[in-house]
Amino acid sequence: MSFLTHLLSGRTSINIGKASLLTGPLFGNNIRQTLTFFKLSRISDSLQRRVVLGVPLSCHLTPSQRRTIGAWLLGCAGMVYGAVALGGVTRLTESGLSMVNWDLFRTMKPPWGKEQWEIEFERYKQFPEYKFKSSNEEMTLAEFKFIWAMEYIHRMWGRALGIVFLVPCACFWAKGRFSSAMKKRMLIAGTLICFQGLIGWWMVKSGLDPNNNSNKEIPRVSEYRLATHLTLAFVLYTVFLWTGLSHIFTPYNVCFY
Question: Which GO terms describe its biological process (predicted)?
């Protein structure tokens, strides 16, 4: 029904979704009804556009392109979940302080041969955790290799996540698959991944320094830094999961049904 018809009929029907709100005579004693009609019409149109389209992340993509990007983002979410699980295993096996160096590239290569393992073990012996674990029984090289491997897998998983995110992200960005809103969200995700590496080392460093431990006898990482590390992982997981599902599933008009 056109606006002119509304005027001629003397009554105004304001449609929002499937709901209908009837007002009094348009040309009555109260001209505020006219202004209300225009205002509600604009609000209704705005809400319907926002709900139907959602955040403008994938409106310009074909269904196939949306599914591809959605599957990639859900894969990234799965890798974040795996990183949290590996972090839990590292925590339970008390392996987090076994790698006393932090270098983005040099520590990617594990020790090779007995001589290199001995050098790495001697480096570990300089820190409080070795003294604590060897207070009752001397730690062996085999035991050190195990806890070192646990922490190594955790760190390499984080690096793999960075690659799995960065390479496809750069490709999709170059091909124009990202809207302005999507670019901002991907920048946030990339920043969180970078921060996770830095915060992870910041956390480990608190356990290597005995002055940072509330209990001087038992070396432990700062619980506050650990909580920060875990919380950011949850935030990153949520960003990937929500954005991935937003691409996989078709948005529906749920406005005022």
Answer: heme A biosynthetic process
